[in-house]
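hey so i finally got around to running the thing on that chain from the lab meeting. sorry it took forever, my laptop kept dying and i had to restart like 3 times. anyway pasting the input first so we r on the same page abt which one it is
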Amino acid sequence: MRSFSTKELRAASAPQPSPAGQAPATRAKLLEALAAEPAKPPYSPIVLAGFVRAVEFVIIVATAVLVHRFYVAPSVGYSASYFIIAVAVAVLSLVVFQGLQTYHPTAFRQPIRQVFRIAGGWSFVFLIVFAAIFFLKLDGAVSRVWTAFWFLLGLVTLAVSRAILSRVTLSLVRAGRLDKRTVVVGGGEFGRELLRDLAAAKNSEIKMLGVFDDRGDDRAPETVEGFPKLGNVDDLVEFARHTRIDLVIFALPITAEQRILEMLRKLWVLPIDIRLAAHANRLRFRPRSYSYVGQVPVLDILDKPIADWDVVIKLAFDKIVGTLALIALSPVLLATAIAVKLDSPGPVLFRQKRYGFNNELIEVFKFRSMYVDQTDANAAKLVTKDDRRVTRVGRFIRKTSLDELPQLFNVVFKGDLSLVGPRPHAVYAKAADRQYDEVVDGYFARHRVKPGITGWAQINGWRGETDTPEKIQQRVEHDLYYIENWSILLDLYILALTPYSLIKTKNAY
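ok and heres what got predicted. didnt touch it at all, straight out
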C-alpha cells in the first residue's frame, strides 16, 4: 500500500456525488449525542512513558546519593566514583525495564505484575553490578554495604512509585485522557473482523465510537458488531469538527486504492491519524512496514502533524519565548496602547473571532486600528490602501504589524495561538468576493495545527491584502509546506526573519 501525497489528495478534491440515502433521524441524534460528550485533550502515551523513565532515573540516582550521604560520606567523604556508578546503573536499569516492557500505559495499570518485573529487572542489574565489582576487583573502591542498602532502598522506592503511578494512570483512563477515540470506515466483512479483533484485545486504549460507511443505507447495516453506523465520510468530517477523534481506521481491501483516495481527499484536512487495517489482506509486507493498534497490524497512511514530544517541545517554546517576548516588548506595547488611545476615542484592544486549530473559533487580541463605529469584527470587507476606516495610528501599526503584538497574550495565557504557524483568518474573510475555502482546495488542512502570530507564508511575502485567489492560494501552499516540514529549528528561522519581512512587505494596509 503506497502512501498518498498532499498533491494527490488535493488533486482528487473535485466535487463528488454523495452516497445514496441519508442518515435517519435516530442516527443524527446519536451523532449529536456523541459530539456533545465531553472529550478533553488526550495525554500522549509516548510522553507519559518518557516522563516515567525520567522519574525512575531520578529515583535510582537519588537513592544512591542518599545512601552515600548517610553511610559513605561521614567516614570516607565524597567520591566521584559512586556518582558515576549511580548514573551508569540508572541507565542500565532503564534499558532492562524497557526490555521487560514496563513502559506502556497498559503496564502502568497492572501494578502487581509490573512490581515483580521491576524487581526482577532491578535484581538482574545488581547481579551485573556485583559481578563487575568481583571481576574488576573493586572491593576496596566501592562499599558493598552501600551497594546492598542502595539495592533495597531503590527496590522499595521503585515499587512505591509504581503503585502511585498505577492510581494516577487509572484516574487518567477513567477521565478518558489516555483513550484513543477511534472510528472505523467500512462496514463490510473487513469492518466486522476488525471490530472483533479490537474488542478481543485486553486493556486496549481504543475507545470505539462507531462506524462510518461511504455506501448507501441500502448496502450498509445499521450496526456492525454492536457498534452503530454513524453516517458516511462527509458526516465523519463534520463529526470530527465537533468532538475529539484521534484515530480513523480504514477497514477496506488493500486493492481499493481509488475508493480509499476518494475518502482521504475529504479526511486529510483533519488533525488525526489515519490507518489502513492489514489484518485481513492477503498481500503481506515486511514486518517493519506495519504498526499496530492493539494486536491488529495496520499501515500508516497519514499522521497527525506535530504529535507526542513535538507537542511538548512546541508548547514549551511558545510559553518560554512568548513570555520573554512579552517582557521585552512591554515598552512597545505600552507606547502603542497610549498612541491608539490618544488618536481616537474607544477601547485600545480589538477582539476578533477567527478560525483556530481544527476549525474551532477562537478570539484573538489586536490593537484597534479602525474608528470604533467602523470596526469590522467579521472581516467581511478587506482593508485596502488608503482605507478611510483606518485611523492615522492604525495605518502605522498595521503596516508594521504592531497591531498583532497583543496576540502574545493569546500565546502565553490563553494557549490558542502559537508564536509560529498558519495565520488565523477571520470568519468571513474573502478573496475576490469568495470565501477562502471556496477558492483553495483543501483550505482547511491548514487548521491541522495551532495557528500562529507569524508563519512561513508571512516571511515569504504573503501577508497583508488577499484581494485575488492567487494570493490566498500562495498563503495556503506555504502554510501546508510549514505543517509538513515543521521543526523547532524552522520555527526559530521564521522568528528570526519576521522583523526583516515586516520591513520589506508592501501589501499590508
